[in-house]
Amino acid sequence: MAINTLNTDSRLLCRMGEGEQDAFRLIYNKYHESVYTFSLWYLKSEIEAEEVVQEIFLKLWQLGTDAAKINNLESFLRTLTRNHSLDILRKRAREARADVMLAVSWQENHNDTEERILLNDTRKVLQEAIDLLPQQQKLVYELCGLQGLKNDEVAERLSLSPLTVRTHMKLALRFLRTYMVRNTDVAVALILLKLF
């Protein structure tokens, strides 16, 4: 049975080497599950195992006529899969080490004083912007945005409809975003845009 499989694989590899896609498809259908399972055993990641399958069969196809020189296709695919999976594991380890080094470096270079000054400056600019809001928008923003009240609560407190409160809040936020972008550092503005 094993000899018959080797003969079949050899014929398929010869045909595949000549560019027959049907032969490649037969090989893929026969071995893709074992390549996937073997890679998954190493990587413990279905996505990465799928990528390994694609890489391995792409390499096999790219061998062209050299594919006919493969004596034992199953063993060849197993070796390729193991080596490629180990490469991914090594890459993961390098990236993890780099992440740790970056984290340490970031903590060492972290400047609390500079950040505190930047934050205080940003707060001053934000307060300037709030002071420039029309009275009703300013009141709604302070109640909703700063005190954390819900639109319905603010509407009841100010004798407004919830829709009017929502509109005032929307207009206030739009003005504050625009003002902050124009009057603060770009990086700070980007962070604030996410907050608003």
Short description:
The protein is an all-alpha fold and 196 residues long. It has 9 helices and no strands.
Descriptive notes:
The chain is mainly alpha-helical and 196 residues long. The chain has two domains: 2-108, Orthogonal Bundle (Rna Polymerase Sigma Factor, Chain: A), CATH 1.10.1740; 112-195, Winged helix-like DNA-binding domain superfamily/Winged helix DNA-binding domain (Arc Repressor Mutant, subunit A, Orthogonal Bundle), CATH 1.10.10.10. It is built from nine helices and no strands. The termini are far apart. The model is unreliable at 192-196 (pLDDT under 50).
Keywords for this structure?
single chain, 196 residues, mainly alpha, Rna Polymerase Sigma Factor, Chain: A, Arc Repressor Mutant, subunit A, 9 helices, elongated, disordered C terminus
Number of helices: 9
Q: Within the CATH hierarchy, at the fold level, what is the topology of the largest domain?
A: Rna Polymerase Sigma Factor, Chain: A
Uncertain regions spanning at least 5 consecutive residues: 192-196
Radius of gyration: 32 Å
- Main beta sheet: none
Please give the CATH class of the largest domain.
Mainly Alpha
How does the helix and strand content classify structurally?
Answer: mainly alpha
Count the strands? 0
Q: Based on the structure given, which CATH architecture of the largest domain is correct?
A: Orthogonal Bundle
What is the CATH superfamily label of the largest domain? RNA polymerase sigma factor, region 2, helix turn helix motif
Helix content: over 70%
Please write the string of helix (H) and strand (E) elements: HHHHHHHHH
Integer average pLDDT:
82
What general form does the structure show?
Answer: elongated
